């Protein structure tokens, strides 16, 4: 059961390549989500808004400042309609697969960073029929090489 002091997982799914990123933040406050995107912007620099053209989130209070933060960073933020998870279907699918390894009710602070990293790598290395059985990781790296230098990509993958 989620306790007030427990960490929270934030998942981002890139639409075109289905590449997934899992981040751990200290709680459900919007300031933690804001800090996460500022950290990503520092890694990507002026390429941030090419990688994150837009972000769609649910209506949780932790995302209340997301639109404002993304606007400041040169991207756009969108919110789904209440109780409309199907509007973020790709991300919901990722969350469902993650739950195989990180079930609801398990305290996030008890899960090692390495375990979360392994789940993320497993997800991103799954062969996808939509990509002719290439993985999301393969497709994501091809896309990122067109936007960023290799060093930026490596730093992003380490942080992710």
TrEMBL record:
InterPro entries: Integrase_cat-core (IPR001584), RNaseH-like_sf (IPR012337), RNaseH_sf (IPR036397), Transposase-Integrase (IPR051917), Transposase_IS30-like (IPR053392). Residues 1-144 form the Integrase catalytic domain. Signal peptide: none annotated. NCBIfam families: transpos_IS30 (NF033563). This is IS30 family transposase. The lineage of its organism: Bacteria, Bacillati, Bacillota, Bacillota incertae sedis, Caldicellulosiruptorales.
